[in-house]
Write a structure and sequence with these properties.
Layout lengths: L1 H25 L3 H10 L3 H23 L4 H28 L4 H6 L2
């Protein structure tokens, strides 16, 4: 579990730094670029569509793990819009709360 948590921390730090540079250079205009690439039916669009589906699966799992409660739906929305930035933090918190029990990590309480 230590290796997994270390991976999550590395991913979080790298992604946060990369995101800060992109925002500094290009602003906050992600959605028009993201959906514009999908609409163009090119390889960047294919990648974005694939990524959108992965985000949807992540959001569904997080909401399901919390039994689609109100907090589960909010966390699911954060997973959908927050991507790996949200999921790395979420998994760091959950792996700590479950004390590394993978069954509880995956299935919830």
């Amino acid at each position: 579990m230590t290796a997994f948590r270390s991976l999550l921390l590395v991913m979080l730090v790298v992604l946060a730094g990369y995101t800060a540079v992109v925002i500094a250079n290009h602003g906050w205009g992600l959605l028009p670029v993201f959906f514009g690439d999908i609409a163009s039916v090119t390889w960047p669009g294919q990648f974005n569509l694939d990524f959108l589906f992965m985000l949807t699966l992540s959001a569904t799992w997080v909401a399901w793990r919390h039994r689609f409660s109100a907090s589960g739906l909010v966390l699911g929305a954060l997973a959908l819009f927050g991507g790996a930035m949200f999921l790395t933090i979420y998994l760091l918190v959950v792996t700590t709360r479950t004390r590394g029990d993978v069954r509880k990590l995956l299935l919830g309480d």
